[in-house]
Input
Amino acid sequence: EFMQASWDIEEVQAKGIQHLASFVKDKSAFPYLLTCTEVITLAMGTHIDSLDLQVEGCTLLLEILRQALEQGVMMALDESVASCLLHTVRKHSENEEFLSMLCTLLMMVSASEVAAENLRKVGIIPDLLSILRRFLRNYKICFSCCAVLWSLAVSEDNADQAVLLEGALPVTSAVLQEHLQSGAVAESACSALWALALQGCLTDSDYEPTAALLLDALRMNPERAVLVKNGCLALASLVRLSEIAALAILLDSKGSGIELIKEEHRLHLGEPGVAEALCLLMNEMVQYDEVMLDMRSQKVEKLLSEIKLQFPFS
Output
């Protein structure tokens, strides 16, 4: 009430945020702090020029969201809050250190479908792409932004979405190329590429280089089960769209994609999610006669029989 009575006084908002932050370590205060997220965000939006207030507000929101996720509480922030966060992103788009924190906040917020929808409505996607272009080498920013892109792009298909995502493929591919050896970022970028493939954001000239890039990600991070799963699902989406992608997997210049699939299966024998993704990819590939003949010659039936024996009830 104290903060809401004096929106225009920056010092009041700063003191209010600092006082709320003092309750963070008190577990019994958590349910009350949850009700303050809108007040904190609106204070940030009202005093957008004050970087100190932005940093303190963002730090507090991150801590509240972290506790919420730990306790399985999903926070569905409304459109006005999403709009405030977007204005903050735009106002401080050159401040790499603060953006890194803010993008982490956006990633945590976008875990909620309602919040993701509201971020999409206020038009945050072009801003995310712009941030990725500008800070391509920043590990934390790339990880967070690709995760947000995944959350926003994976929603139900609609025409507006495809327009909003225009230009997302080259940026996301550049992130994956830049961070191929950084497992967490590569994993996040593979998920974003999967979402872009599902949304039909690729053209004929994109299938081969995107498939090759995804295969590179699998080769460089073979031990990461989630990356392998999402990378295979992204490849399956590409193959569903075009035979070019299937041939790119078979004829990749760095080695047979089929051998890579076999190797990934051996590495993740106990992972049903990986096995399912591999099966989905192979199921898409056998829709093309020429590809199926090649897969037979590479004894894929033996691999499928092994998976079937391993997961007889799945």
